[in-house]
Amino acid sequence: MNDEPSRLQLLHFARRVVVQQATAALAQIDGWIALEERREAERRRGMEMRPAPPDWLIQHGLNRTNVDAVHTGDCWAAAKSGQCRPATRQQAIEALRQQVPACIHCRPDTALGIFD
């Protein structure tokens, strides 16, 4: 009697191996998809819970005592400086009236309706 498997048995075995490997690979990919979906949901929740940016910013010097500039809340230059604090509309107007320079990029004086 021949103990070697037949060609048909070998093909069935190869098919089972491929199905097993494909099932494992799909399970791994499904895990990655689920993880990324959780991360995306967390990012969306974080964005929804983030407070609205302030309407106005006042940029302080390195020693935090002198005031260097007034910015709108969405000014990219203010974001780069890192030395800004939120301000009310009235505080921004008062700073501009006290000769604090307006940012040349976002022009808060124009946005506030203050013209020299």
Number of strands: 3
The oligomerization state is single chain
Number of helical stretches of at least 4 residues: 4
Overall geometry = rod-shaped
What about the largest sheet?
A: 3 strands, antiparallel
- Secondary-structure element series: HEEHEHH
Q: Biggest sheet, strands in spatial order?
A: 2-1-3
Low-pLDDT ranges: none
Mean pLDDT: 90
State the end-to-end distance.
107 Å
Instruction: Determine the fraction of residues in helical runs and give it as a percent range.
Output: 40-55%
Radius of gyration, whole Å: 32 Å
Structural class: alpha+beta
Strand-residue proportion: 5-15%
How would you describe what is shown here?
This protein is of the alpha+beta class. It is built from 4 helices and 3 strands. A 3-stranded antiparallel β-sheet has the order 2-1-3. The chain is rod-shaped and about 100 Å long. It starts with 6 loop residues before the first helix and ends with a helix. The model has no long low-confidence stretch (mean pLDDT 90).
